From TrEMBL, chain A:
<dbReference type="GO" id="GO:0016887">
    <property type="term" value="F:ATP hydrolysis activity"/>
</dbReference>
<dbReference type="GO" id="GO:0015424">
    <property type="term" value="F:ABC-type amino acid transporter activity"/>
</dbReference>
<keyword id="KW-0029">Amino-acid transport</keyword>
<dbReference type="InterPro" id="IPR003593">
    <property type="entry name" value="AAA+_ATPase"/>
</dbReference>
<protein>
    <submittedName>
        <fullName>Polar amino acid transport system ATP-binding protein</fullName>
    </submittedName>
</protein>
<dbReference type="InterPro" id="IPR017871">
    <property type="entry name" value="ABC_transporter-like_CS"/>
</dbReference>
<dbReference type="InterPro" id="IPR027417">
    <property type="entry name" value="P-loop_NTPase"/>
</dbReference>
<dbReference type="GO" id="GO:0005886">
    <property type="term" value="C:plasma membrane"/>
</dbReference>
<dbReference type="GO" id="GO:0005524">
    <property type="term" value="F:ATP binding"/>
</dbReference>
UniProtKB/TrEMBL annotation, chain B:
<protein>
    <submittedName>
        <fullName>Polar amino acid transport system permease protein</fullName>
    </submittedName>
</protein>
<keyword id="KW-1133">Transmembrane helix</keyword>
<feature type="transmembrane region" description="Helical">
    <location>
        <begin position="71"/>
        <end position="92"/>
    </location>
</feature>
<feature type="domain" description="ABC transmembrane type-1">
    <location>
        <begin position="29"/>
        <end position="224"/>
    </location>
</feature>
<keyword id="KW-0813">Transport</keyword>
<feature type="transmembrane region" description="Helical">
    <location>
        <begin position="104"/>
        <end position="121"/>
    </location>
</feature>
<keyword id="KW-0812">Transmembrane</keyword>
<dbReference type="GO" id="GO:0022857">
    <property type="term" value="F:transmembrane transporter activity"/>
</dbReference>
<dbReference type="InterPro" id="IPR043429">
    <property type="entry name" value="ArtM/GltK/GlnP/TcyL/YhdX-like"/>
</dbReference>
């Protein structure tokens, strides 16, 4: 796995409400360059929303987001999102385009690469995730695991400084999870800055550098994985771990 | 058997049919196609604009689209064609210097078609999963680019059958421009059949016109069924198990 030009991402006191529903209540999250932060917690705790706020798919009501120490709230959000790759639970590949076109679309339209150049780079990314031979297939003809690896290649093609994973393996059949998690672990080892929202406690424990436990829109506890998983301090985290482990 | 002979003569008088067929093919067919194709194209463009307005975050744009659609879907086509074709003809004459009613006929058909096509496009675009827009925006595409490159192409694909149905309907409605009064060379299929019927008192020319309409519309109907089927099942392609997963699991075909 190649080295990445990754960055440091910080969310400070992030708040977000949908009407009366206070989804994020002052979240702080710091992800040091080249490290992997996993975010765990019960469903509805705001984990996925946090990712969408950190790349400004949803604008926060309050708080700040810093990339390499500089606030990005005043930047063009489209340009910010070019610097942050995102992988979704439901893959969200573009079904009307071939696999290679899924990966090369942003290269052509946003990076303004020529068709041939974009295709060459896209094929390189597909090779990295082991799916070069599927370049001209349609996403619908791939397994879920393959689709998710294409989605990862699509995000990586933009040479992001940070990668977000939103429950990337939750929609996969159990036997397909391993391949995707292995790829994510490779990225982490390669020095990509990653924020991983996950229900995979094994991944969280073994791959991530820090673990953040969220519940009801707040960070209840965070720290290195050994501390979170072997010496939880709060009852809420103890209760959550006993439920999922 | 007199009655049967009489009926056969009324509907299937080959002589009368043969007399009208050259005009149907040489004059009526191109004119009908001009009306239907032009208003189909303009109606689709205007319809797409209405669909984008209909799903816009701007309440004003949504309202304009809503009111437009309600009006032009709610009126009989013949009324719109007459009101536009007659009401705007002084202006059209001023601008084009011609008495040809086709520009106004096409305009009226376009306005009607756009209302229906706008609703077809809107339902198609709205049926595209939210995750598609989200994934496109997450890559760094603007809202407009995401719609243009990712959401709208998928939405239109899903409603192609409904769209072709609308074209069929437009092809038939094009016959209504005869109400505007057409010079001999401007007559479309229906008007030619109708004139011949009026001259001869025999219905066979209209039957011939009907057959010509069917020759145009029936293949379109079957084309709809074909693409509908194709969209449902997709192009057949062999699925293969996930190679990476195969050693781990049973090689599922998720």
């Amino acid at each position: 796995m190649t080295e990445f030009a990754s960055g440091t991402l910080t969310g400070k006191n992030l708040h977000l409400s949908f009407g009366h529903n206070h989804v994020l209540r002052g979240i702080d999250l710091h992800v040091e360059k080249g490290t992997t932060a996993s975010v765990i917690g019960p469903s509805g705790s705001g984990k996925s929303t946090l990712l969408r706020v950190m790349n400004r798919l949803i604008e926060p009501d309050q708080g700040d987001i810093l990339l390499d120490g500089r606030s990005v709230l005043k930047d063009n959000p489209d340009e910010l999102r070019q610097r942050i790759g995102m992988v979704f639970q439901q893959f969200n590949l573009f079904p009307h385009k071939t696999v290679v076109d899924n990966v090369s679309l942003a290269l052509r339209k946003l990076r303004k690469l020529s068709k041939e150049q974009a295709r060459a780079e896209a094929l390189e990314q597909l090779d990295l995730v082991g799916l070069k031979h599927k370049a001209d297939s349609r996403p619908a003809n791939l397994s879920g695991g393959q689709q998710q690896r294409v989605a990862i290649a699509r995000a990586l093609a933009m040479k992001p400084e940070v990668m977000f994973f939103d429950e990337a393996t939750s929609a996969l059949d159990p036997e397909l999870v391993k391949g995707v998690l292995a790829l994510m672990a490779d990225l982490a080892k390669g020095g990509m800055t990653m924020v991983v929202v996950t229900h995979e406690m094994g991944f969280s424990r073994n791959v991530s550098d820090t673990v953040t436990f969220m519940d009801a829109g707040v960070v209840v506890e965070s720290g290195p994985p050994e501390q979170i998983f072997t010496a939880p301090r709060t009852d809420r985290l103890k209760g959550f771990l006993s439920d999922v482990l | 058997m007199d009655l049967l002979d009489q009926l056969a003569d009324t509907f299937f008088n080959w002589e009368e049919m043969a007399k009208v067929i050259p005009a149907l093919l040489m004059v009526g067919l191109p004119n009908t196609l001009i009306l239907a194709v032009a208003s189909g194209i303009f109606g689709s463009l205007l319809g797409l604009a209405l669909a984008m307005m209909g799903i816009s975050r701007n309440a004003g744009a949504r309202w304009v689209a809503r009111i437009y659609t309600d009006i032009f879907r709610g009126l009989p086509a013949i009324l719109v064609i007459l009101v536009i074709g007659i009401g705007l003809s002084p202006i059209a004459r001023e601008i084009t210097g011609s008495r040809n009613p086709y520009p106004l006929g096409i305009l009226a058909l376009t306005l009607i078609a756009a209302a229906y096509i706008g609703e077809i496009f809107r339902s198609g675009i709205q049926s595209v999963e939210k995750g598609q827009l989200e994934a496109s925006r997450a890559l760094g595409f603007s809202y407009g680019s995401s719609m243009r490159l990712v959401v709208v192409p998928q939405g239109i694909r899903r409603v192609l059958p409904a769209l072709v149905n609308q074209f069929i309907s437009l092809l038939k409605d094009s016959s209504l421009v005869f109400m505007l009064g057409l010079a001999a060379s401007d007559r479309e299929i229906f008007r030619i059949g109708n004139d011949a019927m009026a001259n001869t008192g025999n219905l066979s020319p209209l039957v011939a016109a009907g057959v010509l309409y069917l020759i145009l519309t029936v293949p379109l109907t079957h084309f709809v069924n074909f693409i509908d089927n194709r969209l449902r099942t997709g192009k057949p392609e062999k699925k293969e198990p996930d190679e990476l997963a195969a050693p781990i699991g049973k090689g599922a075909q998720a």
